[in-house]
UniProtKB/TrEMBL annotation:
Subcellular location: Cytoplasm
Highest taxon above the source species: Bacteria
Keywords from the UniProt entry: Cytoplasm, DNA damage, DNA recombination, DNA repair, DNA-binding
Lineage: Bacteria, Bacillati, Actinomycetota, Actinomycetes, Propionibacteriales
Name of the protein described by the UniProt record: Holliday junction branch migration complex subunit RuvA
Record organism: Nocardioides agariphilus
CDD domains: UBA_RuvA_C
A single GO cellular-component term on record: cytoplasm
Recorded domain comment: Has three domains with a flexible linker between the domains II and III and assumes an 'L' shape. Domain III is highly mobile and contacts RuvB.
Family: Belongs to the RuvA family.
Length: 199
């Protein structure tokens, strides 16, 4: 089991990052919020979770240990695999998910692409006693992002989560007034997803 990966960031793509470790480039699947904190050439340390399949070994990278723990825990719910678990974390910070589950808030959970009303109810039922109370962690945004790049990051993330390019563009335009001088990609992505779920 690979608990974490530390090394220079060799590349950042739409949904993954490549970290160089001992001369080997390891690709880690990450949420847009995590990717927004990475810069090519800078050294990063990401907690990781490995998903083993018959035909693949996939490493998922996280912002912190809490996000990793939630990723692994939500997969214990029926019908939640690694991709859906990652989609949940792309839309909701760990504490937001805890609050939604503890308050039986199916509406918040159904904002995640791939989760319907029944799926949300099942997740709440199966995880209510296991996710625990909010721990007070605030997901880091991307204070170093320039105003323009966040639009591309949010747009690409929405397309990667299954929305059409046109819908993604409309959502990016809708949340643009929230960006301010130091746009936080993770927060803007969540706002964009909320906009799309209402449409």
């Amino acid at each position: 089991m690979i608990a974490f990966v530390r090394g220079p960031v060799a590349a950042v793509t739409l949904n993954s990052a490549v970290l160089e470790v001992g001369g080997i480039g390891l690709e880690l699947m990450c949420t847009p919020g995590t990717l927004a904190t990475l810069r090519t050439g800078q050294t990063a340390t990401l907690p990781t979770s490995m998903v083993v399949r018959e035909d693949s070994l996939t490493l998922f990278g996280f912002l912190d240990e809490d996000e990793k723990a939630v990723f692994e825990l939500v997969q214990t719910a029926s019908g939640v695999g690694p991709k859906l678990a990652q989609a949940i974390l792309a839309c909701l910070a760990p504490d937001e998910l805890r609050v939604a589950v503890l308050s039986d808030d199916t509406k918040t959970l159904t904002r995640v692409p791939g989760i319907g009303q029944k799926g949300a109810q099942r997740i709440i039922l199966e995880l209510k006693d296991r996710l625990g109370a909010p721990v007070g962690h605030v997901r880091a945004g991307s204070p170093a992002s320039a105003p323009a790049p966040w639009k591309d990051q949010v747009h690409q993330a929405l397309v990667g989560l299954g929305w059409s390019a046109k819908d993604a563009e409309s959502a990016v335009d809708a949340v643009a007034p929230e960006a301010g001088e130091e746009p936080q990609v993770a927060a803007l992505l969540r706002s964009a997803l909320r906009t799309l779920s209402k449409a």
